[in-house]
Amino acid sequence: MQKTVFITGASQGLGLELSRYFSEHGYFVYAGCFSKDAPLFGPGKVMKGDVSDEKDVRRMFNEIEQLDLLINNARFDPSKRKEGTTDSDWWDMNMQVSLKGTYLCCVAALEKMKQQHSGAIINVSSIRAIIPNDLNRIPYGAAKAGQLSLTRSFAKEAAPYNIRVNTFLPGAIETENLMLRITKERHLEVCREIPLQRIGTMEEMCHAVMFLAENTYMTGAIVNCSGGLLMDM
Ligand SMILES: NC(=O)c1ccc[n+]([C@@H]2O[C@H](COP(=O)([O-])OP(=O)(O)OC[C@H]3O[C@@H](n4cnc5c(N)ncnc54)[C@H](OP(=O)(O)O)[C@@H]3O)[C@@H](O)[C@H]2O)c1
Fold this sequence. Notes:
The protein contains seven helices and seven strands, in the order E-H-E-E-H-E-H-E-H-E-H-H-H-E. It is α/β, with parallel strands linked by helices. The radius of gyration is 17 Å and the shape is globular. NADP nicotinamide-adenine-dinucleotide phosphate (NAP) is lined by residues 8-9, 11-15, 32-36, 50-52, 73-77, 97, 101, 124, 126-127, 170, 172-173, 175, 177.
């Protein structure tokens, strides 16, 4: 039977590339999106909804029969703070998608996967879960760190049902929007800070996520793909 994957945040960036990659590798892709439409690259279905809204999450998961893999990739972009946003609102905005959204999707996926007695979940965190962040990115880093705890707890809960839950932890990614978010000078600076001296490609990220998806003896693990920014994880 064709394997299925639900990728949240598949309208752009890493999620879109994961959607293409998993399609090319024979998966039926449920492509999640929120304000934009997600393209499809093969057999699949677009899943429009807010991952931080329990009703939306239930509706989307109810449309899925068999689920082999969930990739919690959606996030609120931390470079998008508007002038006048209060610190309290900023905290909530960052927590809603990355942390609450990951939690709600894990709960819904687990219910389905427990019945199947199989499945896997990958939570896409970030190097910012580990390194100190500038003032503006503190809530984002905290949300991404919270995902590490979600992975650990859901992995323990899910293991007796033959379900694996892992964290993918990227460093900087060469997404199509990277140069809209940082200047050329900052790009060079970032590359110099990375031991491998460059930003990771989307292909390299997808390859690591696929490894986590397909390996059948890893659970509760963190796969760090950061060009050496983070070592010994
Ligand atoms: N970019 C990097 O360098 C980097 C580095 C480390 C880790 N990461 C992690 O990698 C993942 C992907 O990053 P990215 O840069 O590709 O992300 P991105 O370009 O900011 O895209 C975010 C995605 O999340 C979706 N989304 C936003 N709010 C949502 C909501 N309420 N409900 C459902 N979906 C929602 C967006 O959908 P719409 O466009 O349809 O609104 C979009 O598809 C994230 O988890 C991020 O933390 C990225």
